[in-house]
Amino acid sequence: MHDLQVVSVEDLSGEKFLAFSEAQAQDAARLFSVEASLVVRDSSVENMTCSILNPILSWEKVKAVFTPESFFHRSL
């Protein structure tokens, strides 16, 4: 299995987030699974897109992700 970056996370201006982890696996039926995680610490990042790319088939799926303001912990 090739270690390709198949998950990409960007803010709405197109700036890519680099601080996330990605794990890829292939099962006995030769099907792939991808898991990615991202830690957002800046409450100004409210909206982003997550793209999953299949480089073999040149197929990409993009979804918007919205983080509400209440998601971030506020200090009293």
Automatic annotation (TrEMBL):
Subcellular location: Membrane
Segments forming domain Butyrophilin subfamily 3 member A2-like Ig-C: 8-61
Signal sequence coordinates: none
Record carries keyword Membrane: yes
InterPro entries xrefs: BTN3A2-like_Ig-C, Ig-like_fold
Top-level taxonomic group: Eukaryota
Keyword Membrane: yes
Major site of localization recorded for this protein: membrane
Protein name: Butyrophilin-like protein 2-like
Species this protein is from: Chrysochloris asiatica
